[in-house]
Amino acid sequence: MARANASLLCVGLDPDPALVPAHLKTDDASEWVPRFLAGIVDATRDLVCCYKPQIAFFEALGLPGQRALRTLLQAIPTDIPVLVDAKRGDTPQTMRAYARAIFEDLDADAVTVNPYLGGDSLEPFFSYPGRGVFVLCKTSNPGAVEIQDLLVEGSEPLFVHIARRAVTWDTHGTLGLVVGATYPADVAAVRQIAPRAPILLPGVGAQAGDLEHSVRSGVDADGGGVLVNASRSILYASSGSDWQTAARAEATRLRAAINTARAPSATAPH
Question: What's the rounded Cα separation, in Å, for the pair 213 and 181?
Fold first, then answer.
């Protein structure tokens, strides 16, 4: 899909009742959430490489949100990958249940996971051939440095150690890594460790991550290999009746900016 749509843009699908255009909301989240998000999909489906529903926003809406998520997944074209942003992390037995829920019940193409419990906790996810497992490495929030930049084994930041370990956990070539666009130098460090793994780049848009430098630092040898995520800046580009038009305009702008940054001249050593 990245090649077909000439796009490395991943649109996050995060239904926030406080931000959604007021005229779209009803008392039933199982109705307005999929209507709103399916409208975003319709407006951007030829501009993206992936959609990323953040599961917390659906869970916060209770059972109607759970139903809305399933309705939404059915509305996404089958040729566009779905990455469920769940950041699961628990003991191996519990992770087997999480993996079944996300890869079998929701039939997601990929998921984000937390590596804090070690490699055996992620094995249930890596045991699914063809399903992407994006390991949190360096997250986009300002507080990430409190933990993820701690030095381990004498001199190596923890996020670098995680990237190295994650490469060894990858049993089926399904590893992805999450590195915030708010830390372009760290994107480059992770790319050196994992030259072929796709990197999810959150933090573009509302978080004001450095799109150009992060894309340049993250693309692989073929000028691809990154998924640049934007959520709020696209979903809530307008609160008026032009919400779909505004979402498409912002997605178009971001796709063009990403493609400019990934051009051969931009990916040369710098």
Answer: 8
